[in-house]
Amino acid sequence: MTHQFKVIKTPEQWRAELTPQEYKVLRQAGTEAPFTGEYTDTTAPGVYECRACGAELFRSAEKFSSHCGWPSFFAPAADDRVRYIADDSLARHRTEVRCAACDSHLGHVFEGEGYETPTDLRYCINSISLRLRPE
After folding, report:
1. Which residues contact 70 (CB under 8 A, 6 or more apart)?
2. Rounded to an integer, what distance in angstroms lies between the CA atom of residue 135 and that of residue 124?
3. What's the CATH code, domain 11-134?
4. Are 74 and 62 in contact (CB under 8 A)?
5. Residues 6+ apart with CB under 8 A from 20
6. How many alpha carbons fall within 13 Å on the CB side of residue 50?
7. Which residues are the active-site residues?
8. 35: burial class by Cβ within 10 Å (0-12, 13-18, 19+)?
9. DSSP 8-state symbol, 41
10. pTM listed for this prediction
11. Structure confidence by residue, pLDDT tens digits, 53-93
12. Residue 98 and residue 123 in contact, taking contact as beta carbons nearer than 8 Å
């Protein structure tokens, strides 16, 4: 079964629209270095959109300081904004988070780490996957 997404582009189209660094993270599931992203410590109110397609993904009200080196959220803007993929590429099981609209890689979500958030989840998201639209 082939899954269809709302935004479908060829790799060539994505390469023309994204910087090489954005392409590596968003389209090839790369990871930016910790503590280097523009939104790691941002506290400005607003909506975080997918840098590739502009879909609303997270809100600043759900962002928290996890001190992990990447922006952290305890929930997406809505359940249908992201999709999840099992990721066993490292020594431990992880859950990859992708934009539901364009299938771009955003980061990973972790559960049960003990953060005092309403969901006990940490969406660890690459800054380069996001664009903040201030309120």
Report:
1. 32, 34, 37, 40, 107, 124, 125, 126, 127
2. 22
3. 2.170.150.20
4. yes
5. none
6. 27
7. 124
8. exposed
9. T
10. 0.92
11. 999 999 999 999 999 999 999 999 999 999 999 988 877 78
12. no
The answer to whether the beta carbons of residues 4 and 100 sit under 8 Å apart is no
Distance CA 130, CA 86 (A): 21
Tokens of 68: 């992990």
**Pair of tokens at residue 118:** 């309403």
* Spans of all domains in the chain: 11-134
SS3 51: coil
Q: Angle CA(43)–CA(113)–CA(22) in degrees, nearest 5?
A: 50
Q: Which residues pair with 48 in a beta bridge?
A: 58, 132
Tens digit of pLDDT for each residue in 27-53? 999 999 999 999 999 999 999 999 999
Query: Token pair of 124, please?
Result: 């660890």
Quick one: tokens of 94? 């992880």
Q: Which two tokens stand for residue 8?
A: 């479908």
Both tokens of 18, joined, read: 């994204």
